[in-house]
């Protein structure tokens, strides 16, 4: 790893991409209704959430994820293909962590695949952005 090869604007864009993916992934027409049902949430409960806290911390954690992935990809040989592959592999780790916690929380497999799938897709896209924007 060569920290001087980290492209910080790419890290920010990669972090923001998680919002775009999440907006689509958790939309009611995609997985939103199933996710809410399996999370025991209602639209009213979601609306009562502190949006500044939710979106603020979401961006903060997405930024940490993107920076961490960028550190692993900080190599002259990194390209879009390797970036996407590394992101996918990081997504598999995240999927497994989500699955382990969800199994102990007695969550459904559907819940696991919705949240774990989001991690895989989101991190793959983050990795592709970081690999492409060298």
What topology does this entry show?
Blueprint: H1 8-25, H2 28-38, H3 43-47, H4 51-72, H5 80-104, H6 109-132
Helix pairs in contact: 1-4, 1-6, 2-6, 4-6, 5-6
Structure, described:
By secondary structure, the chain is mostly helical. The protein has one domain (3-132). Helices cover 78% and strands 0% of the residues. The protein contains six helices and no strands. It has helices at residues 8-25, 28-38, 43-47, 51-72, 80-104, 109-132. Helix 4 (51-72) crosses helix 6. The two termini are 14 Å apart.
Overall tally of structural domains: 1
Strand % is under 5%
Secondary-structure element series: HHHHHH
Largest sheet: none
What percent of residues adopt helix (DSSP H or I)?
over 70%
Estimated structural class: mainly alpha
| Unreliable sequence segments | none
Mean pLDDT: 96
Report the end-to-end length measured between terminal Cα atoms: 14 Å
Helix tally?
A: 6
Q: What Rg do the Cα atoms give? A: 16 Å
The best one-word shape is: globular
Beta strand count: 0
């Amino acid at each position: 790893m060569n920290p001087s090869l980290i492209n910080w604007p790419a890290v920010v864009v990669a972090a923001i991409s998680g919002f775009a993916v999440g907006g689509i992934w958790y939309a009611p027409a995609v997985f939103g209704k199933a996710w809410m049902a399996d999370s025991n949430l209602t639209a009213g409960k979601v609306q009562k959430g502190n949006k500044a806290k939710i979106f603020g911390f979401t961006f903060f954690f997405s930024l940490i994820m993107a920076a961490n992935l960028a550190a692993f990809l900080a190599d002259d040989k990194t390209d879009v293909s390797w970036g996407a592959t590394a992101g996918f592999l990081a997504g598999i780790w995240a999927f497994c962590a989500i699955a382990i916690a969800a199994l102990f929380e007695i969550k459904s497999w559907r819940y696991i695949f919705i949240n774990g799938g989001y991690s895989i897709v989101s991190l793959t896209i983050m990795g592709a952005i970081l690999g492409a924007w060298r």
